[in-house]
Amino acid sequence: MVRVRFAPSPTGYLHIGGARTCLFNWLYARHCKGEFILRIEDTDRERSKKEYLDEILESISWLGMDWDKIFYQSQRFNIYKEYAQKLITKGKAYQKDDAIFFKYEFQTIQINDLIRGKIVFSQLPKEEEVIIKKDGSPTYNFSCVVDDALMGITHVIRGEDHIPNTPKQILMYKALGFKEPLFAHVPLILSPEGGRLSKRFGATSIREFKEAGYLAESLVNYLLLLSWSPKDNREILSIKETIELFDIKDVNKSAAEFSLEKLDWINSFYIKSKNIDELAKILYQYTKDKNFLPTNIDLEYFKKVVFLFRERLIKLSDFLDRARFCFYDDYTYLEEAKEILNKNLAGEIEFLKNRLNLLPNFDKETIEKEFREVCKELNLETKALVHPVRVAISGRRIGPGLFETLEVLGKDKVIQRLDRLIKYWQNN
RNA sequence: GUCCCCAUCGUCUAGCCUGGCCUAGGACAUGAGCCUUUCGAGCUUAUGGCGCCGGUUCAAAUCCGGCUGGGGACGCCA
């Protein structure tokens, strides 16, 4: 049976690169109907933090992945020591200054990477390596080998930055008498500037992407497309069909630059394709987390507002400032919108207001019909009133379609906001 | 410095293994047009690429070599 693992170190948040490595492992496990193990590499007592661990687990779950087993290396120190001791007995390691050193036995190492094919190492950078530190904790390469072997990992799928570790680990497998797993080194994700994805580039942790308003499925879909493709020109794939199609052998060899533009496009696509109830639910939670909504907002009303905006959201966060006027009356006219108010149309707006006020039904169609009729009577182009009215009701120059927005706001609010505009003209 | 990985439009990729069907396909971004009350969305359309040099071959994006370029690793971090 296929058994793979993702081995994060809780010394930082789960970032884009780690998330994709996790995803590839998880997809492969699910594709093969195998097991996906989470191994927390918390051997560095100083730097490992509970909050990072929680964050990592939460991010993995949020992205839609689950694990069959979880192990903590911090609970396995005695196991590592036991195996280090065996190496000493075999004469392949020795103790010095309270630490245990492993002696590499020189030989050309060849690995048959599932993604890259044959990789040959003709030499090693060093002749020995600490495997148990002075403080009794194991070093990465050693605990990794012991655990992968003991846990029965069949495929080690990890980032290509681990390629140089592989020959060292293979030598340890041999010394320990363990069977080697298969290796697959997935390409790195580069920042748009070419180098490592980090500080300069805004968000790198999954949590930050979530907070920025990206949907989990967008992130997963996008990450998937970096270094893998269904080969039939499709860009949008559900997790379910990806599990069917995914094979680690098909992952590309070359590193890929992260592109926010494409992620944005995928995100807006997913937002647009969600049904309104689902999207409203997600946005409701999102806005709640951001403390954006006033208390006791009616869910039906919220849903209507979401419907208004859903086609123009790239990220959930776009909803925050753009839809604010639907929930609060205290908005101001934005500077860029005031230009539209340069021409004083107080009389015309007053006329329009009175006519709208008389409408028996305040629905989109009725409003639009009357609005256009009024403009005609005033001998104005429709847009001559559309723009100022939009500013009146939202404070903004741009927004969703005006007539549906008026319907959502309701007659009372619209009348009140038109009055406010008339006053604005009177005072300026 | 030593070792290793990679190389198709600006970006992500299909094609490469099993040379001819490739005057290299798709997506994002960008330009133009249509639609339109703004923005967006949608639709149509355009621009744009096999890093270079050799070799093998009737034929190379595809095979081989070199170069160049980019990336990674060299911690009692993981």
What does the secondary structure layout of this molecule look like, with pairings?
Layout: E1 3-6, H1 16-31, E2 35-40, H2 50-62, E3 69-72, H3 77-89, E4 93-96, E5 99-103, E6 109-113, E7 117-121, E8 128-132, H4 140-150, E9 155-159, H5 165-176, E10 182-186, E11 189-190, H6 206-211, H7 216-225, H8 239-245, E12 256-257, H9 260-273, H10 276-289, H11 299-309, H12 317-322, H13 335-338, H14 346-357, H15 364-377, H16 382-394, H17 402-409, H18 411-427
Helix pairs in contact: 1-8, 4-5, 7-9, 10-11, 14-15, 14-18, 15-17, 16-18
The structure holds one RNA strand of 78 nucleotides.
Walk me through this protein's architecture.
The protein starts with a strand and ends with a helix. By secondary structure, it is of the alpha/beta class. It has 18 helices and twelve strands. The longest helix is centred in the C-terminal third of the chain and has 17 residues, at 411-427. It binds one RNA strand of 78 nucleotides through strand 7, strand 8, helix 4, strand 12 and helix 9.
